[in-house]
Design goal:
Layout (H helix, E strand, L loop, with lengths): L10 H8 L4 E8 L5 E9 L4 E8 L7 H4 E8 L2 E11 L4 E6 L8 E8 L2 E8 L8 E13 L2 E11 L3 E9 L12 E5 L2 E2 L2 E8 L4 E8 L9 E12 L3 E4 L3 E5 L2 E11 L2 E8 L4 E9 L2 E9 L8 E7 L7 E18 L2
Antiparallel strand pairs: 1-2, 2-3, 3-6, 4-5, 4-7, 5-6, 7-8, 9-10, 10-11, 11-15, 12-13, 12-16, 14-15, 16-24, 17-24, 18-19, 19-20, 20-23, 21-22, 21-24, 22-23
């Protein structure tokens, strides 16, 4: 049983730890100063591989954690990359999560980087101590959104975690960010906490999608995926007055805060919701159309996202033109999982 990690574990992992799942390791690597990293144990299931570690030594500083980079775990048919981690500086213990490892591996090697030097720690792996799988469910459900689709392909549930996997296909050449926090897994009427999500690039504008949730409750009777919000796009093709005021671009509000000419450029400062992105932006003057050349002055800590649109013109601008607006759109789609 791992001790001292209670605050770093989810409730389901805490219970598995108390029930004796997982594997004790107790392997230490000496870093290039007085600092040591000790792997105390691992917890493995079909969805992920977690390392529980402690930092020790006289050379320990507040910055030590940020100097350590967990790269990957290798072994027989295994190359698992790390993708998330937590650390408690009060007790100098942490948990690093990797992609799952192959069940036939007998030895695994943790690769890490610390102060410009690479380190390895080899340790035995006992797959029979992994957390058992409860559900492997094939899905065939698709969410169509304004410029692509998400195909939900499978659900894997163990006593320690739940993973939803799928394929995302987008039909835009813009660099779009994705927020999966409103794709919710509901079990017996209760929303499962989300642990994280990720995209891995594929071919022809496709991405492999994974969303990790807490473990399912015992003897779950009803299970569903609820897509409450996801990416949307309005092809607005709209011009608004280039002057201070509040406007609407489709369903998206936009506020012009100021219009200034300086240094041979026209700068229009705007405010919008944080999830909004504008595409194909230009200004109209009596002499013609001038496209957007750059965006600057992003600000944090305000209720709205503020930015400055820069145009290479000193002519008096009359209108601001926007072709497309990207934003988080309400979908309210529910997918029942038998």
């Amino acid at each position: 049983t791992l001790l001292g990690y209670e605050d770093l574990m989810s409730e389901s992992i805490q219970q598995l730890n108390e029930d004796g799942f997982g594997q004790s390791i107790n392997k230490t690597v000496q870093l290039d100063d007085e600092t040591k990293l000790k792997i105390e144990g691992v917890m493995s299931d079909l969805n992920q591989f977690e390392i529980y570690y402690a930092i020790e030594g006289e050379g320990l500083e507040d910055s030590t954690l940020f100097d350590i980079q967990f790269l990957e775990i290798t072994g027989f048919l295994t190359k698992s990359y790390g993708y998330s981690g937590v650390f408690d500086a009060d007790i100098n213990k942490g948990v690093q999560t990797f992609e799952p490892v192959n069940a036939f591996a007998k030895k695994l090697t943790l690769h890490l980087f610390y102060k410009q030097q690479a380190y390895e720690i080899e340790f035995p792996y006992e797959a029979n101590k992994a957390v058992p799988t409860m559900i492997k469910k094939r899905l065939n459900e698709t969410l169509h959104y304004d410029f692509g689709e998400v195909k939900f392909k499978s659900l894997y549930a163990t006593k320690g975690s739940t993973r939803l996997e799928g394929i995302l296909k987008e039909q835009t050449d813009r660099n779009i960010s994705y927020d999966f926090s409103q794709i919710v897994l509901v079990a017996d009427g209760k929303e499962l906490p989300m642990r994280g999500s990720g995209l891995k690039s594929g071919f022809y504008s496709t991405y492999k999608l994974k969303i990790d949730y807490e473990a399912l409750p015992p003897n779950v009777k009803q299970l569903s995926i609820e897509v409450r919000q996801f990416n949307g796009m309005d092809n607005v093709k709209k011009s608004i007055p280039a002057q201070v005021g509040r406007y609407k671009l489709g369903s998206v509000p936009l506020e012009i805060l100021s219009v200034q000419v300086e240094g041979g450029k026209t700068k229009i400062r705007i405010a919008s919701d944080y999830d909004v992105m504008f595409d194909q932006v230009s200004v109209e003057t009596k002499k013609g159309v001038t496209p957007l050349v750059s965006t600057e002055s992003y600000s944090d800590g305000t209720e709205k996202k503020e930015r400055t649109l820069v145009f290479m013109t000193t002519d008096e601008v009359q209108k601001l033109y926007v072709e497309n607006v990207y934003y988080n759109k309400m979908y309210e789609k529910s997918i029942n999982i038998p």
